[in-house]
Each structure stands twice: as structure tokens, then as C-alpha cells.
Design brief:
The chain is an alpha/beta fold. Helix content is about 45%, strand content about 10%. β3 and β4 form a beta hairpin. The structure holds adenosine-5'-triphosphate and magnesium ion. Adenosine-5'-triphosphate binds next to α2 and α11. The site of magnesium ion has 5 residues, from α2.
């Protein structure tokens, strides 16, 4: 076999090409602020890793981005290096009506124009507290609308959801224009997806007619296994227009980055994982720009 065309050599060449191409592009901005929930009730599929790295990619490309951490685990807050000890102004205070979104935001050091509303462990009690409220599914939507009424320069708000379809995720779905669904390229990847889609349809019917699935993002893709390729082609078959062309490879660097409180763009900016998240962010930015002003909910 010629050493010039091994799979590894091909992959490295492709990564270098992708990186060079992405250095030239300008990310378009959406015509109006978009609210995007990153959700999948399946645990550990890459929701938080995707929220964190997409938000940094978008902000570094010049968009104005907010991350709302809606998971009591607070993993997105940790990974973005944001203070989130118990008692810190957080998504909990927003959902209990104590504070506005603006009062809870912290700037993220990794990029200009990246703000984070952190989650603390207090958020684990919010579902119970919300459950007795009327209009309990609309609390986050109202908070986001109040913020956007004053700050019209925000391009994208990404909401990192917990691995459940409880009231926290429902609040995110009711606040959102669209959902990004990260799917891990593994056996059982599609299990539970029909329940997620059914939930989104119900939300659209009863609570938020504007909600769509904006993208499916394949994560932890392993080029060396047939299984990853099979999962990819199966998702592509069912959701040809929704699945992003870009996918995220399995990468040790990606799993290391949160322990330093940084994204892949600080931890390993020239690696394949950073390039993939930048490519996915660019694809999303293009889709969002193509939406124009449709479905404006002013
Ligand atoms: P949860 O459901 O608990 O909120 P999640 O869906 O947010 O999980 P992550 O926390 O993003 O998933 O990822 C789960 C684990 O897999 C983490 O340890 C993360 O560092 C690791 N991980 C995520 N994406 C990748 C990847 N592409 N390659 C290798 N490891 C990854
Ligand atoms: Mg998570």
C-alpha cells in the first residue's frame, strides 16, 4: 500500500483543507435574534460539549452569543470557566422570577460578545418550585423576551438542556425557535429520538407553534468503525435536510478541555475537533441567515 494515501494521511489532508477553507469564511448573522435549545433526553451524547464549542466558535466569528445553562449539573458553566458556586446569580433565579436574565449574565473570557447565564446546583430544586405555578412552561420564554426587547444586538441564544424532558427542557423548548439535537454515533443512537420528536411536536401544537428541529449534529464519530458510518447514513436517510454535513469526531482533546475551563478553541485550536466545531457553527450560521426574518415572533 502506498503511504501517501492511508486513511490517516487522507484524514490529515482533509483536516488541513477544512481548516484553510474555514479561515477564509465570514459567518453571516441571523436576521433576528434566534433562540436555540440544545437537547436530547439521552445522557452524555454531547449536548454540553456542543453548546460550549458552538457558542465559542460563533462568538469568535463575530456573532453576539449568549449561553443559558439550564442543567443543574452546570457543566456548560464549568467548561466556559464561569463562576457557578451555590448562590451565584443563575438560571435558578431567572426561573423563580427573582432576577432578570441580564442580572445573571457573566462575560466569558474566551471570546468577546459571549455571555453566560450559569447554572448552580440550586437549579435542581427549580422543577419542583415551578410545578405549582400557572404558565410554568413560559417563564424562560418571558425572561428571554424581556432581555431581547432591550438588547436587540444578540444574534444567538444557546440553551444547554439537561438529559430529561422535564420542566427545565420544556421551558427551553417554549423559549426556543429551534432545537439542535446532538446524536452520538453509537449503537442505540436513535433510541429515544422518536420520543424527542413527539415531544417537540406536542410543544408545537400546544405551547410554541414556531418550534422546529433546526439541526441534528452527529458527535463522537469514529471514522475507523463501520458502526459510526452506519449510524450516520441511517440518520441521513431519516432526516436528510436536518442533519448537518459537519460531524464531530471522537477526540480526547474535546473531553479534556472542560477540566481547564476552556473550549477546544483554547485547548487545541488547530486540531480536527476545533475545525469540526467551527465547520458545524458555520453551517448553522448559514442556515440561520437563510431563515431571513421568517417566523418572527415579535
Ligand atoms: P448530559 O446528558 O450529562 O448533560 P451531554 O449530552 O451534555 O451529557 P457531554 O457532557 O457534552 O454530553 O459529553 C459527555 C462526555 O463525553 C463528556 O465527558 C465529554 O467530555 C465527552 N465528549 C463529548 N463529546 C466528545 C467527543 N466528540 N469526543 C470525545 N469525548 C467527547
Ligand atoms: Mg450536558
Amino acid at each position: 500500500m502506498s503511504t501517501g494515501s492511508t486513511p490517516l494521511a487522507d484524514e490529515l489532508a482533509r483536516a488541513a483543507r477544512d481548516r484553510a477553507r474555514l479561515e477564509q469564511v465570514t459567518f453571516p448573522r441571523p436576521a433576528r435574534p434566534l433562540v436555540v435549545a440544545v437537547a436530547n433526553q439521552k445522557g452524555g451524547v454531547g449536548k454540553t460539549t456542543s453548546t460550549v464549542n458552538l457558542s465559542v466558535a460563533l462568538a469568535k466569528a463575530g456573532l453576539s452569543v449568549m449561553v443559558i445553562d439550564a442543567d443543574p449539573q452546570g457543566n456548560a458553566s464549568t467548561a466556559l470557566g464561569i463562576e457557578h458556586t451555590q448562590g451565584t446569580e443563575s438560571t435558578y433565579d431567572v426561573l423563580t422570577g427573582e432576577l432578570s436574565l441580564e442580572e445573571c449574565l457573566q462575560p466569558c473570557e474566551e471570546a468577546d460578545h459571549l455571555m453566560v447565564c450559569p447554572a448552580t446546583i440550586d437549579l435542581s430544586g427549580a422543577e419542583l418550585e415551578l410545578s405549582s405555578l400557572t404558565q410554568r412552561e413560559f417563564v424562560l420564554r418571558r425572561a428571554v423576551k424581556d432581555y431581547l426587547a432591550v438588547h436587540r444586538n444578540v444574534d444567538v441564544i444557546l440553551i444547554d438542556c439537561p438529559p430529561s424532558l422535564g420542566l427545565l427542557t420544556l421551558n427551553a423548548f417554549v423559549a426556543a425557535d429551534q432545537v439542535i439535537v446532538p446524536i452520538q454515533a453509537e449503537y442505540y443512537a436513535l433510541e429515544g429520538l422518536s420520543m424527542l420528536i413527539h415531544t417537540i411536536e406536542k410543544i408545537r401544537d400546544y405551547l410554541n407553534p414556531g418550534l422546529n428541529i433546526g439541526a441534528i449534529l452527529l458527535t463522537m464519530f469514529d471514522r475507523r468503525t463501520n458502526l459510526s458510518a452506519e449510524v450516520a447514513s441511517e440518520i441521513k436517510r431519516y432526516f436528510p435536510d436536518i442533519m448537518l454535513e459537519s460531524y464531530i469526531p471522537r477526540s480526547v482533546k474535546l473531553s479534556e478541555a472542560p477540566s481547564f475551563g476552556v473550549s477546544i478553541f483554547s485547548h487545541d485550536p488547530r486540531g480536527q475537533a476545533a475545525t469540526s466545531y467551527k465547520a458545524a457553527a458555520y453551517e448553522l450560521a448559514q442556515r440561520w441567515a437563510d431563515l431571513g426574518d421568517q417566523n418572527g415572533t415579535e
